[in-house]
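Figure 6 in text form: structure in, sequence out.
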């Protein structure tokens, strides 16, 4: 049986192996961190399309490679074939943009030199920082990624090839198609199930819940819906905040930046405000959390 301890509880909707740095920042702020994985990552339905895009990248077919997640970096490394992603980038002469520092770190670990990381880790920040020009852009993204970045680059005159790099699926993914996530070093936060969360919160505890992507919002809503569970929703960024509002949940706080420290500050703000919006949910009929 899981019990709340060590400060005001914050539940991060992410796999515990990818929540270590966030958990560290939450604990440093006097909060107790828990992980509740709801989504996972699988290879794309059409791996050949990614392989063709990577071949074109290595042949100089793109001026820019734009990455918006560490998951996409992982998939490109898996599907690069005999060559590494770093080799293809060097051979083709493409410049590389990463939406934020986490993606940039994953690229650096793969030996890829990153040319652009915007000050604001978002599609809007990347569009604002992206240099003018008309060279072609390769944009590998998740199947559920919003279209704003592709549309913005295309509106600026770029020829954009968006390819489905991976699929976001309910946790856990198929063992045959699962993409290994980027695991962080350090002690992992305790893992909750949905049943744990509902049971503990029914005892009067009102946790903050950190939504790390619009897909996490959809899964949480599909599996809990509306009901008596009270929580304070924290969004990792503006896109996720918009998904929360569309689902009928007002964010109590939105991280100014998606770093562990930014998320911890947002969670602390949500828990400290007596008048912060409170959302409600409960298991749907037949759900087995």
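Output sequence:
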């Amino acid at each position: 049986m899981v019990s709340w301890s060590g400060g005001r509880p914050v539940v991060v909707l992410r796999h515990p192996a990818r929540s270590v740095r966030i958990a560290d920042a939450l604990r440093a702020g006097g909060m107790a961190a828990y992980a509740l994985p709801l989504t996972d990552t699988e290879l794309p339905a059409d791996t050949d399309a990614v392989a063709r895009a990577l071949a074109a990248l290595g042949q100089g077919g793109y001026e820019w490679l734009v990455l918006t997640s560490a998951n996409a970096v992982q998939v490109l490394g898996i599907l690069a074939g005999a060559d590494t992603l770093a080799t293809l980038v060097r051979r083709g002469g493409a410049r590389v943009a990463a939406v934020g520092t986490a993606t940039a770190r994953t690229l650096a670990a793969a030996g890829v030199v990153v040319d652009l990381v915007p000050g604001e880790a978002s599609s809007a920040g990347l569009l604002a920082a992206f240099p003018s020009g008309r060279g072609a852009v390769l944009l590998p993204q998740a199947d559920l990624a919003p279209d704003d970045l592709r549309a913005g680059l295309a509106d600026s005159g770029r020829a954009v090839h968006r390819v489905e790099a991976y699929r976001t699926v309910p946790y856990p993914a198929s063992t045959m198609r699962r993409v290994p996530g980027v695991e962080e070093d350090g002690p992992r936060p305790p893992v909750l199930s949905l049943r744990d969360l509902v049971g503990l919160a029914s005892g009067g505890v009102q946790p903050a819940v950190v939504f790390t992507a619009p897909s996490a919002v959809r899964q949480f809503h599909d599996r809990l819906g509306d009901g008596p569970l009270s929580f304070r929703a924290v969004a990792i960024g503006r896109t996720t905040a918009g998904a929360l509002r569309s689902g009928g949940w007002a964010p109590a706080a939105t991280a100014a930046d998606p770093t562990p420290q930014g998320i911890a500050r947002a969670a602390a703000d949500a828990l400290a405000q007596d008048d912060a919006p409170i959302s409600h949910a409960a298991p749907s009929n037949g759900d087995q959390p």
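Caption detail: The longest helix spans residues 260-272.
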